[in-house]
Each structure stands twice: as structure tokens, then as C-alpha cells.
Amino acid sequence: MSLKSVNDILIVLKKQPQWQEQPLQSLLQCWTEIVGVVVATHTRPLSIQRDVLRVATSSAAWAQNMTFGRQKLLVKLNEKLPSPLVDIRFSTAGWQQPPDQQQMESTVLPCEHPSYLGNLNSDRHDDTAATMNPNAAFGDWAKTIKVRSHGLPLCPQCHCPTPPGELQRWAVCAVCAAKQF
Length: 181
Prior knowledge:
The chain has 181 residues and is mainly alpha-helical. It folds into 2 domains: 17-91, GMP Synthetase, Chain A, domain 3 (2-Layer Sandwich), CATH 3.30.300; 110-180, no CATH class. The chain has helices at 6-15, 23-35, 37-42, 60-68, 70-80, 128-132, 134-149, 164-170, 174-180, and strands at residues 43-49, 52-57, 87-91. It has a 3-stranded mixed sheet. The longest helix is centred in the last third of the chain and has 16 residues, at 134-149.
């Protein structure tokens, strides 16, 4: 048995396939740089098989758009990769947005909504008779609305009482803002 130096052993290990850098790993490192930030958020390289890169896209429209420009992309990628690619295939198959890029669906808490006026339920009285009679229920609702709207600023267009958050956000009430759209 001959003794070999650590350098000799490392050279032998580096030549083994499991120690060599995989083409997909080097591609993942430069993907955003090559395609750009916007495209990178809608695409993700999945695998390289038989020198064909498989890329998942967030939608069929992105897959089609990327397919049209795949030749230019192939040239850019082959400049950066150790072994050249033959083709690129884009598909929505395999697309799942990773947790770090997932956009959490923003749920607006009631207190964060521009129309929020505060917790006004504490001054409501529970009158079961008012809910039995439609006219009484309407009267109870109208009285509640009148109390809520007292002291609110007025919309500059329709002169209706408007929550301050709506005026701050749209400069008019929500109804007038909706008419503008």
C-alpha cells in the first residue's frame, strides 16, 4: 500500500462525478443574472436531461413567451455553462412558487380598511323586537348609521359623511371613487 498526499487524494475525488459541479447548480446560480429579475420570478429551471433544460413557468403565457425567445436564451446560457445545452423546454408543469417567493395573500384586517370607523358595536342595544318587525329593524339601522356618521368629514363631491381613511386614500368617498373607475 502506497501513501498518497492529501492533494493527490483530493484531485482523484474532484474527478469523480458526484464531486463535480452539476450543470444545473451552476445554471441556478446565474439564472437571475441571465434572464433578469422579472423573468426569474415567473420561471424556475427544474432539470437538465440529455442536454435539454426543463424550465417551469408560472403560466402558459410565460411558457409561450419564453419559447419564442429560447434561442437567444440558449446562447446566453451556453456562454456561462461548462457543458452546452441543446434545447430548452418551457412548461407550467412542476411550477410551485417556493415559500420564500410566495406572495402572501394580503388579507385586510377590518381595522386596516380605509372605511373602518372603530368598534361601534359597544353602543348598540340588542333589541329582539326590532329584528322581528322590518320597519323597526330599518329604523334601528338608520339610527345606528346616523350615530356613526355624526362628526365624519364630508366627501367633496357628493357631500356625504365619509370615513377619514377613504378621504385620505382616494380624496373622495368610496362610492365616488368607484364611479371614477
